[in-house]
Amino acid sequence: MALGEDxxxxxxxxxxxxxxxxxxxxxxxxxxxxIPPRANRTEDIRYNKKLxxxxxxxxxxxxxxxxxRRIATRYEKTARSYLSMVMLGAIQLWIKFVNTP
Length: 101
What we know:
Elements: E1 10-12, H1 20-28, E2 32-34, H2 49-53, H3 55-65, H4 69-72, H5 79-98
Parallel strand pairs: 1-2
């Protein structure tokens, strides 16, 4: 498998990802869908609310990474070099976090 092609254990998505085809694809790949149902859905769909709250942390991290212009505009053309830049950005954020008094 290529870099990043492993199926995750769960997909944390917002209500925009609440569709039957997406849920069916995740079910076929044995990926747990942590997606709240849309308001207009007739059947009740259960999801892990505690796990869904972690999505906020991921959103904030992505927002901080996009403060680096090179990551936000995706100057790198290959997935490997882009992932390397994301890793460098994450390392810079981590160093700032660790070195704060």
